[in-house]
Amino acid sequence: MAIVLGPNQYGKAENRVVRITRDSARHEIRDLNVSTALRGDFSAAHLVGDQSQVLPTDTQKQTAYSYAKEKGVESIEAYGLELARHFVDDVVPVEGARIEIEEYAWEHAIVDGEEHEHTFVRLGQEVRTASITVEGKGAEQKTWVIGGLKDLVLLKSTGSEFHGFLTDEYTRLEPTTDRVMATALVAQWRFTETELDWNAVYAGVKRILIKQFAVLHSLALQQTLYEMGKAVLEEYPFIAEIKFSAPNKHHFLYNLETFGVENNNEVFHADDRPYGLIQATVMRDDAPDAGPAWTPAANLA
Amino acid sequence: MAIVLGPNQYGKAENRVVRITRDSARHEIRDLNVSTALRGDFSAAHLVGDQSQVLPTDTQKQTAYSYAKEKGVESIEAYGLELARHFVDDVVPVEGARIEIEEYAWEHAIVDGEEHEHTFVRLGQEVRTASITVEGKGAEQKTWVIGGLKDLVLLKSTGSEFHGFLTDEYTRLEPTTDRVMATALVAQWRFTETELDWNAVYAGVKRILIKQFAVLHSLALQQTLYEMGKAVLEEYPFIAEIKFSAPNKHHFLYNLETFGVENNNEVFHADDRPYGLIQATVMRDDAPDAGPAWTPAANLA
Amino acid sequence: MAIVLGPNQYGKAENRVVRITRDSARHEIRDLNVSTALRGDFSAAHLVGDQSQVLPTDTQKQTAYSYAKEKGVESIEAYGLELARHFVDDVVPVEGARIEIEEYAWEHAIVDGEEHEHTFVRLGQEVRTASITVEGKGAEQKTWVIGGLKDLVLLKSTGSEFHGFLTDEYTRLEPTTDRVMATALVAQWRFTETELDWNAVYAGVKRILIKQFAVLHSLALQQTLYEMGKAVLEEYPFIAEIKFSAPNKHHFLYNLETFGVENNNEVFHADDRPYGLIQATVMRDDAPDAGPAWTPAANLA
Amino acid sequence: MAIVLGPNQYGKAENRVVRITRDSARHEIRDLNVSTALRGDFSAAHLVGDQSQVLPTDTQKQTAYSYAKEKGVESIEAYGLELARHFVDDVVPVEGARIEIEEYAWEHAIVDGEEHEHTFVRLGQEVRTASITVEGKGAEQKTWVIGGLKDLVLLKSTGSEFHGFLTDEYTRLEPTTDRVMATALVAQWRFTETELDWNAVYAGVKRILIKQFAVLHSLALQQTLYEMGKAVLEEYPFIAEIKFSAPNKHHFLYNLETFGVENNNEVFHADDRPYGLIQATVMRDDAPDAGPAWTPAANLA
């Protein structure tokens, strides 16, 4: 029996890269939070403190900012691919790279009914995400791209039921045929291609997710998630699987009866904790191997 | 010399009241965070633990939820006025009430180009705020209403300068004629009337603030705030003053020259802390007395 | 009627200054979050963008870091006084300065039962605070010092009652003679002197607050706060007043009876929101004028 | 090619269970945040909204609170094992359960030098964690227990170097032989036994981690983590592996030279973002299979 070094990675987390495009009078903005993680044989650094195979996290940061100009940020997926490939291709000890990016959306400010050319208002809604993994050098190189979003807060004020559930001696929940259903959706979808119109696909997936949440008369949040995922996969053949993490943000009907006030699903208390948490994957049965696609840049929190 | 009880107040903070209007197939939603604070002579509770003059914070909570149905939530200002007047008018020991409300905006989900009737997406942008103070009973009663917003994140990618400033031996800042200017705006405006189309005014103030931020070629964030406030007061005669708190969210130009990469105000690091903080009031010189209008429900944090 | 500039101030918020003392093998650490705000006639900056009277917030930052070495950080009160006096005394247009500081406590790591000389563990408990205001130049200069703490989380598992309260038609709360009482205390105390052993006083006030919370059999959180404040004022003649903001962090007794399980004040749900919020001032009846002592560096949030 | 349901789980997250032991005059408190997740064949709920195999998340919550009394909370590991085994053993469709618990530490308040019997101060330092996984019924059942902590903030003011690293064209970092090293440690260790004195082991692991952080003259955070893990494994034969996630919380030496002020590693700026992030596993080479031990209750964030 010996004590050994197991899986490890290191990088620079949360580089707040802002890229302004100002080639014309109308500017555009990309507002990113970029995390990098490198994988390879860094055992000398762990075992004896020898850094000769370690590209500093500061260098990873410098590269992330410089690439925002050198390669541009047409989309977070494309920019992330450039960064990941650079680290694996150009840094000898690096055998794999993981790039995770969050993007905060802005829109042009409206002034007298027109979009202002260089003033922006942050939208503040969902955060767009991407996770790029590149492994191996040369002809053996493999690439995985995951697109996603988080904090997309959705609510249906009717059209949602919950009943017929399993019960045991601790069950006190009353079944209902009309409840508020709300979630702050996290969704991530794995691509099988690396050359796509990433921005168009993102807009399309978001549109489909919202539509399915709306139109499905829901018997469970599980069912809603499944239909959302199925619709995305039906639309985009180059998406192999989609994963959801959906808190059931409870809106409890407030008891107004005690005051002689009718409450016909009109007044609710939005509770913080605890919350239900539903997680599901919808996938193609012939989805190619996910490999390290789902292994995050930070594997403990 | 004696030790005495000084200013005090108590209430229920952060009631998460959600009000759905479902009188027709098209639902509407008001998503509120309501805090109440009562003022009066509660010295017996402090000095000897006698609660006979203390309406429990739990009762204040019950009232906030019930009023969301009994009085409705046409606007947070109107709903807050109902709550504040109730506590002062109907609870004998209460001599003053302060109601503070945050509202989170939602929009109807778009499905196939149409607004869905009962599905909503949280906008996530700025938070609308209102602070209502009522003092005194009967004919002596006085009322103050403050509208506002917070977390409206604005950015100009050009059209902002900063130079000609005072210097001393600790000054190292370089003057600039072209910088990114960004803020997460907090604004609060004090009304001199209590019967208004609150929602229309809110939309108007927000529109004006954004416009002035955009169109003023700025020599300082101070100047921008002043012009924003001035434009609001010029438009609405029933607004006596407007206060701003504006963090200068620094976007530092990233040094790419060292890599031989030109950076013509295109790549920035968005820094977290520290940040400049500019606060200013723009007011009419004949503004009526603010009284307790600016005394918050929570006076320490 | 004219539109005019009202009260205003500006500064650099949240400078994260860390000061290590390493004059001997045993190091010490002061971990600060420093905010500065300057007051005076800055109307030219607001009205026409003229910065000639504006010392940049960047300069304020540089000064805060440099003073951590030049003047040292024996206590946050003493360091804050140095900074405030410098801005008012040495910068011509500055008529008043407000310095607000948070301090995060660390202790020496324990290794084999001994304190390690240069390794520290952050305590993570309450945050110590100080707010210093200096106004006027030369002989006219006035100074106010406020000490404080926040996020001191206290809980009593018995020894707390709540009954005999005022009721109305919305009251449903049941009186109780034994409840959990918990709070995350904010306290700020105003000094009448500026030359004190600040660190010793801080330790003493904290000790007294905790003791009174513990030993008073409480009939209301209001009563507990009053006794805490009274004891502090009785101990320290140079403290004129103390203000509290105390959320009543509700611990709701969980209904286990439905499962045939006895719950004799043993299992609770710690709820997040809403929460009661009690605020009170305990003061000497001959306390000198507070002037701007309580006017914060950020007056809107 | 068909679209199918992939991996899924559901549960109740963040139940804020507080357990007071009051069997004698001296009370004790356990303050927990409990998340449950159930695994099994719930495809009917996803595919057609049939809940007949779904034990509601509300029932999971009720059970968590009731078990705090029925089984007690001697340690979070023992309590989590009770909950996990209950769901798998007693609920027919449940094939696996994952329980994740955070514990917030309190200590008895000190009054006149003595511990007060029923008043507590929250420590606020690190959060203790546990993750329990049970899979399979009857004789086939397997169990994994992970202990851990997070947010243990450590700092060395000397005794840390970083040099000799790999460089490329983006490297601008200067090597150093004396820097501040600080982290907010996350550590999780996997047990190979399920009957242990969990509280004693927790205290021991924490003690060892702090000691190794202190005594190792560090050439890299990687090296420090490895030595910390190695020492834990050497002490406890029933720990198979330990994983670390350690942000390198940068403390940048502040340039005071420009003011003619010497800064001999005495004044630093504590920066927020970006930060280095080092992750490493230290394990026995004969560690038994981890199975689902590291699969969290929430697999996307």
UniProtKB/TrEMBL annotation, chains A, B, C, D:
Its EC number is 1.7.3.3. The keyword Ligase does not apply. It catalyses: urate + O2 + H2O = 5-hydroxyisourate + H2O2. Pfam families: Uricase. The keyword Glycosyltransferase does not apply. Keywords: Oxidoreductase, Purine metabolism. Pathway: Purine metabolism; urate degradation; (S)-allantoin from urate: step 1/3. Catalyzes the oxidation of uric acid to 5-hydroxyisourate, which is further processed to form (S)-allantoin. Belongs to the uricase family. This is Uricase. It comes from Agreia bicolorata.
